[in-house]
Structure formats: C-alpha cells, structure tokens
Amino acid sequence: MVFNKFLSGPVSISTPFGNLTDITSGSEEGTKDRPCPLNGAMYTKAREDTWEKRRPLAVMVENHAESRPAIGLTRADVVYEAVAEGGITRHLAMFLCQDAGDIAPIRSARTYYLDWLSEYDALYAHVGGANTDGPADALGQIKQYGILDMDQFGLGFPTFWRGTDQLAPHNVHSTTKKLWEAADKRNWGPEDDKGVRWDKNFVTWKFKDDANLESRGDQKPITVTFWANQPDYTSIWQYDKTLNTYKKFYGQTAQIDPLTNENLFAKNLVVQFEVETDANDGYPDGHLLYGTKGSGKALFFIDGKAQEGKWIKENRTSRTKYIDPKGKEVEFDRGLIWIQVVPTGNDIQY
Fold first, then answer.
1. Beta partners for 42?
2. Low-confidence residues of the chain, pLDDT below 50?
C-alpha cells in the first residue's frame, strides 16, 4: 500500500470498477538523483525506468466555478492555464514523471493548448473540442498536426467514466494509468512508428535547487486577473516561505485537490502575456485565439521573489524559452511549474 506523505494514510478513489489507490510521488525508497525532464524534480532510478517507457500526457482539465475542485492537478509536472471562453479558464495538465489515480473534470480541446502540448509531442486527453470552421477548429487541427488523440469520444469506458460527484458536463474522469494503457494499445509509447523517441529533440528547461530559507523573498500575494469582468477566475497566490511554494486561492477560498488533500500549488509561477483575439467563427460563446508564437512579456515568481522577463516560441512545435532581465535563460526550482497565460496589458498585482 502506498502512503501519501501529506496525509495519514492511503488515498482511496472510488470508481465504477472498484477502488483505486493513488500512486504518489516521493514515497519510493532509494536515492533520488534522476531529474524529471519536464520540471527537474528528483526521483529514484525505479521511477525513471517507469517514465522512460511512456511519453508525456496532456489532459484538458476544467476550471468552471461550478466544477471545482479540480482533481489531480497536484500530481502534474507542469500546468498551463488560460481562458477557454467567456473569461472561464481551463487547465492543460502535463504528466510524465508522476501518476494520478484520478483526474477530473476532463473537458474539450481548444486550439492554443495544441501549441503548448506540441512542445512535448504529447498524448492529448480531452472530451471533444471546438470544431467550428475557422482558425479555432481544434478537432480539425488535431488531425492536421498529427497529434496523438485520446478523445473520450473515441476511447470511452473504462478509460473515461462519468462520476457521480458532479452533473454533466462537469463529471468526466480518468487516470494516468488508464490513459497510458490505452495509448500502449495504440502503439503510442515513447517511440513513434519510425523508432524515434518523443524526447529526441526535446529541450529541457534549466533547473536549480531551492534557495535557502534566509535567501528567499517575502512575496506579497500575487493577483492574476484573466478577465476583469469574471472575478471568479482571478487567481490569488499566497507564498509559503517555509515550504517555498505558491498556494492557489480564489478570493479567500483555498483550492484543495481532493486526490491528495493538498492546496493547489506552484513551485514556480509564470505569468505569460499573449495577444488575445476573437476567432470570429460564429460560435455563440466566442472561440478565442492567443498569440502563442513569437515573443512577449513574462513575469517569474521563484523563491519568493518576482522578476520581469520574456518568453520566446519560434513555431508550434518548438520549445518555449524563458529569458530573465539579463538575457539569460530562467532557472526554475525543481518541482511543479504553473504557467498562466493572460491577455497582453493585463494588470498583475504583486
């Protein structure tokens, strides 16, 4: 039985096919000297042997106010967050080095998330997606780009199931284990049909160890506004100097992951400014576009300190680079990286 280091016992998840136990990170015995390619967190050789047999998994996780709390995000290696429509944000959770015994609620695809997951040559788990003719046709682009598509409508039960915790459409669940197993059945392992591994040309970001306690800053709360007229989606990040993490709140409400009973957190927080435009494709709620390629301003919150810099992404599949004020690549602390993409010109308070 695997125990969660943050809880007094194992985390049991009820599913239509029996109870699952969350496979936690950080509980294995042995020397932790193998860095996760996605976020630099250190794990054992046994865990590395496991992730070497699979490719990154991108899961579209909802954040509608009526769907909270999101499940499984504290087990992600990297999380992207941007507005899906109408000021309502949605997460793209990237998994490789950790496992989540439950992920929910899983929702539909949007075009700009494809540009981010393409950096990892990742599997993409989602429930349908935008398919209106035009520049925001995510389902058409999944086929066009050759993305390894893990759509719930093509896989169904038991890879995906609808829980009783919420009403549709806020109740689609899966697990990393089931998604990677379904990928294996499609021969979508770490290598493609030509024997080329997903990470052959993958560029890892730069990582470092945490600053010691005395060197950490005293970061005030960080307020990240996506759309000013949708305050339910304005993130408040509270810095915990002792743990050296940023904990996520909406207003005064801590966002707790039911899978681990942890406050949603970031080891590193990136606020990435991109040009937001309307796709003008006739969709009633308005599909959006973001300027994911090129460069723009970014804010980095690491070790309780803030700094301005920029992001650079040459094309859809190229790796985003993060540059500090001195022109050097940003060094992230080892652990979960949360990237919030906001419209250019937004006022971020910190």
1. 35
2. 1-9
